Amino acid sequence: MTDSILTTDINATPQRVYAVLADLNGYGGWLPRSRTSTDREHPIRTGTSYSDASLIGMAHGTVLECDPDRLLVFHQATLPGRFGGSMIAITSRYALTPIDGGTRVLRTGTIVTGGLIKGVRPLVVAAIRSENRRTLRALKDFLE
Fold first, then answer.
1. pLDDT for the residue 126
2. How many domains does the chain have?
3. CATH number of domain containing 134
4. Residues 90, 102 contacting (CB under 8 angstroms)
5. Is the pLDDT of residue 13 over 70?
6. Residue 8: Cβ within 10 Å count
C-alpha cells in the first residue's frame, strides 16, 4: 500500500537531481534539520547503509535500488522502542523523468508501523507526508 505520492517539476537535469539525492552526507547542505549520513563515500550503490536521525528517533536505512539519473529507492526503520515495541519503517522511491526544462520527480512512500504506535498510524502518516512535502520543496529550492 502506498501512503504518499508527491510530484514536483524541478528546473535541473535528472543527473543533477540524482546527484543531490544520492549524496547522503550532503543532505544537511540543502535540507534544514537533516541528520542523514553514511560511512560510505559518494557514490552510493544498492546495499549502501545509512542513518537518519529525526524527531521520531534514529532510523537505520539501506539503499534498495539505484539507477543513476533515473531511480533511487531507500528503506529505513527505527528499532522497536521500549514502549510496546513501537517502530516505523519507510520505503521511499524517487523516480526521475526528463521533461522540457528539467526533471519531474515522483516520490512515493510506504509506511509501516508496529507496536503501540500502530494505534496512531494516521497521525504518523500525516506527519511523514508533511516531511516529504518539505523535502521536495527544499530539493526544488536548492536546485533552482
1. 87
2. 1
3. 3.30.530.20
4. no
5. yes
6. 15
